[in-house]
């Protein structure tokens, strides 16, 4: 057995090793040592003899000469300080040359001689900072086909080398540091094809300070301009006015600009081709909150702008009606990390044609503080809050505006909206009867709206979404989100999802309910046939109910792609969750990272659900002993009750039997009612109870002496019992209808069942019908020792009258006389 396992492992290891080796070999095959030098790796350009050489990170001090079939060459991150004249003269096939991260301090006219087909040159992060000394006149003389040039992280001034030969240049990345007005001078006028300028201050040195209409005077054909993080303080009107072709403008991360500058920017863009405008973080985080005014966007109405990014600008509201000026082409907006509060502008949202709204992280400014901070010169404060915006701070019932005619609060959603993120918002809004206006939303992220979400400044009561949702019995909140494929309600303190909350979401594919306080899936989801991911991580689920399991199974029937994440819950593995654990084993549903699930067993130990079958077996065993205990306990209790009843029945057996037969007797012949029991007329004077063995004595001697001689009417079972009636009823009836009962006591009597029956019935009769008057009279026909007498009879013997049959001539006479007297005197 061991050997088989062992060899199996060896085989596996071998297979693994060889497949690894294959992968490595494959990789090596791809990149192999260049035939011309050992310090570079080479590979072929697919489908040609040309080579791509990678000589990066090799501490090279100088550039060797490369064979002429090199097409791409990287010398990135070496210690190269000079480029020998003509070193590339044979490399007319070279298209891409990366010399970034070296110590090159000078570019001479002949440095790039021969690189007539070079398209892309990267000289970023070198030592080219000595202005005229670093760049010889016509440094780029031979690069007439160059399209992309990167010179970033070299100079710390506004110096720009001669670029006039770069007639083909399309994209330029440079440093530019100017403490006053930045001016890209006539040198740029030669760059007839330049379209993209990247001045991004994070990858290079950028300080533009002031932009005026002179700044880009020679760059009217630019389509992409990245002025991000360039320490801009002023953008005067006219700066971008000539850039009619501009498609994408990025002035983000210039926090000293202040949001109001947006007006100068859009004014310049009104006749341009602008499509994407990025004005993220153009307002200091310590400045006052801002308002997106009509004047800021009014000028965009005739453009075909598609996307606006205005992240982190402390925007608190939008002027009512402003949104209307955004053109039809406008499709997506990113206004994350602002400070939006409720306002009339919400009403304009429905008429917007946007498809994507990113409005996440509208939390306190403290959350934004970690972002880029720069010191700004103090500008005169010109913040005025005009009357139009005053309603912001008054308690105008804005919520009333959001109510539709039937009194429901309907959150206005742009009609064509497809993606919306309202993550981490503390929109100060109380919308208890919330729903969304008609829309096309496919992806909605409402996550992390922990507290105070949907709370209003108007009333003091506040509800978190966690409190509203459970009251949404009819599923109205999401009723208009019919196309939605993704809902994220993570981190909302939701305790309970109302049964019908998602009833309209037939197309839902991903539902994230993680980090809430949900205890079970008690909402309908079997209709979500396309559901692929249900995230319930980090909730309070201990086990899934039968209903929940049925819901999930009903999806699994048609959709085997469903994945559920139940991690970080309080799962329990005990008898209560037996069916749940069984489901875990059998379900076709994929349980995401099941092996990490922890569950609490009855011993409080955390057991990993890595092997659910084992867990299930343990539970089964446990439950079985549990069942055994229950069975034992119930049987015990039943037995006890049974014995108790038995005891009681036994204790009162005679009474019960007596009562039973009395009822039967009275049923047969009800006796006339008599007030006084003593005056009752008895059918017989005495009932004689005797054993069959003693019948000679009874039928001869007793009958003769008592009935014939003494005139006492006797009842003998042989003679007086009614045939047809059952014997017990006869006996009871006879005892009841006789004044006395004479017991002919003998050993036969004691061993006869019916005799003892008669005896006991007579006793009962005396207790229950005759007010405890003694009706029993014992005649000891035989000598019986006290030891042989049952206790009950002995008791009677001691306190009651009895007489012994003497069995001699003289005594006989006395006996009968005494007996007659005794019966009559009773
Ligand atoms: C130039 O090199 C830098 C640093 O390696 C890199 O970030 C950049 O993308 C490269 N640019 C071009 C145009 O190749
Ligand atoms: C660089 O050269 C130009 C023209 O050759 C000259 O006008 C300029 O003053 C020089 N700059 C420096 C810093 O030497
Ligand atoms: C400017 O650069 C930043 C950082 O690389 C980038 O995120 C942004 O998209 C760029 N903007 C443009 C217009 O290329
Ligand atoms: C907008 O441009 C005008 C001049 O064209 C200037 O006076 C004003 O200060 C600029 N606005 C901002 C906010 O920089
Ligand atoms: C946009 O075009 C309309 C009609 O052509 C014109 O009335 C309006 O003034 C223009 N708006 C701007 C900001 O240029
Ligand atoms: C939305 O547009 C329609 C017609 O285009 C107009 O009647 C309605 O008043 C607009 N609603 C808002 C809130 O502007
Ligand atoms: C919506 O989001 C999805 C996935 O996140 C993306 O593929 C799609 O392009 C987005 N649509 C719009 C209109 O932004
Ligand atoms: C009001 O909104 C609710 C929820 O969206 C909707 O069920 C109801 O039909 C709306 N009433 C009117 C009159 O539009
Ligand atoms: C929510 O709507 C119901 C009727 O649809 C109404 O009775 C209730 O008062 C509303 N709640 C609030 C806070 O307006
Ligand atoms: C839902 O939102 C949370 C918190 O914002 C995030 O961590 C999670 O990745 C989101 N879920 C999905 C499926 O995107
Ligand atoms: C399950 O996923 C596979 C591949 O991801 C896909 O081809 C198949 O259509 C999916 N099935 C359902 C029912 O969504």
From TrEMBL:
Record's bilayer topology term: Single-pass type I membrane protein
Membrane-spanning ranges: 629-652
Main localization of the protein described in the UniProt heading: membrane
Keywords attached to this entry: Glycoprotein, Immunity, Innate immunity, Leucine-rich repeat, Membrane, Receptor, Repeat, Signal, Transmembrane, Transmembrane helix
GO cellular component: plasma membrane
MF (Gene Ontology): transmembrane signaling receptor activity
UniProt key word Disulfide bond: no
Signal peptide coordinates: 1-23
UniProt cross-references to InterPro entries, sorted A to Z: Leu-rich_rpt, Leu-rich_rpt_typical-subtyp, LRR_dom_sf, TIR_dom, Toll-like_receptor, Toll_tir_struct_dom_sf
Boundaries of every TIR domain copy: 682-823
Pfam family name, one: LRR_8
Compartments, record wording: Membrane
PROSITE patterns linked: LRR, TIR
Gene Ontology biological-process annotations: innate immune response; toll-like receptor signaling pathway
UniProt xrefs under Gene3D superfamilies: Ribonuclease Inhibitor, Toll/interleukin-1 receptor homology (TIR) domain
Similarity annotation: Belongs to the Toll-like receptor family.
Protein name, as recorded: TIR domain-containing protein
